[in-house]
Amino acid sequence: MRQLRLAKDAMDRDWADPDLDLDAVAAHAGYSRYHFIRAFKAAYGETPGQYLTHRRIERAEDLLRTANLTVTEICHLVGFSSVGTFSARFKAWTGLNPSEYRTKHVDRGAALIPGCYAMLWAGGFRPGPGARDRNSGEAP
Predict the structure, then answer these.
(1) What is the pLDDT of residue 18?
(2) In whole angstroms, what is the distance from residue 44 CA to residue 41 CA?
(3) What is the pLDDT of residues 91-138, one digit of tens each?
(4) How does DSSP classify residue 136?
(5) pTM surpassing 0.85?
(6) Residues 6+ positions from 123 with CB-CB distance below 8 Å
(7) From residue 105, how far is each of 9, 13, 72, 122 by CA, in Å?
(8) What is the model's pLDDT at position 67?
(9) Rounded to 5, what percent of the chain is helix, strand, coil?
(10) Which residue has the higher pLDDT, 113 or 47?
(11) 3-class DSSP state for residue 68?
């Protein structure tokens, strides 16, 4: 059980990484990929993929309620690479598509966190290749 908790902790820590690899998570537990899936489901009641999807959807719900970001931005921030997959999974989990969820849960007149702050806090701004070599254009 300790090894499964280590793997679950790794998923809890890196849930937003779209490249989160099941093989690497299984390696945290010291299991093969297929044995890990069976053991995780027996211990937690859902597969690692379902668990990770639920974590991402929960975070998306929070962002939809509080941040002034588009559905596409939220989709990518929480680790989905496809807006269609994100919307389908979100609707299956909540019963509403992301736009309907936002409309239902955001109070009228409530100020949302500006998207730039939410992106900065969530790690959505990632430097591109060679970003360290660039400066702001000021003279050295």
Answers:
(1) 74
(2) 5
(3) 999 999 999 998 888 765 555 555 555 555 555 545 444 444 444 444
(4) -
(5) no
(6) 16, 77
(7) 30, 27, 18, 21
(8) 85
(9) 65, 5, 35
(10) 47
(11) strand
Tell me the C-alpha distance between 13 and 64, whole Å.
21
Count helices and strands in the chain by DSSP H and E runs: 8, 2
Q: Distance (Å, rounded) from C-alpha 79 to C-alpha 10?
A: 15
Give the residue from 63, 50, 43 showing the smallest Cα distance to 92.
Answer: 50
Residue 32 DSSP SS3: coil
CB burial of residue 18 (10 Å; 0-12, 13-18, 19+): exposed
Beta strands in the chain (DSSP E): 67-68, 113-114
Which residue type is seen at 53?
Answer: T
Whole-number Å distance between alpha carbons of 122 and 117: 8
Q: Longest C-alpha distance within the chain, in Å?
A: 61
Range 76-102 average pLDDT? 93
- Higher confidence at residue 24 or residue 139? 24
Phi and psi, residue 114, nearest 5°: -55, 140
SS3 of residue 20 by DSSP: coil
